[in-house]
Design a protein that fits this description.
The protein is mostly beta strands and 110 residues long. Helix content is 6%, strand content 44%. Strand 9 and strand 10 form a beta hairpin. Bound molecules: FE2/S2 (inorganic) cluster.
Amino acid sequence: MKKFQLGQSKQGAIDLFPEKVIKRVKLGNKEIGIVRVGDHFFAFDSLCPHRGASLIQGSINGYEEIICPLHQYRFDLKTGALQSGSCSDLEVYQTSLTDEGLIIQLNSGN
Ligand code: FES
């Protein structure tokens, strides 16, 4: 398990991520997407598990789901569960907003 910290405080982390704007973030060797919806932060694989389109170009709907730009498959941002389409679930990573900033945990092997 590897931990990464973004920002120096709660507010600093919030300021780094304008609401519903998907950002590409490199953590170690891994490139992931991060998006904030209210005070919920979601971290996920930057490539769609269907055909590998970049989810950085995806969009966020009102149900905390990300929609792939290529075939519009939808994934739950919290669990990664596929909501529409036919492929495996999206890999998501645990986030927590703390007084020290946003903490993201990548599983070992990532
Ligand atoms: S590549 Fe994402 S839905 Fe097909």
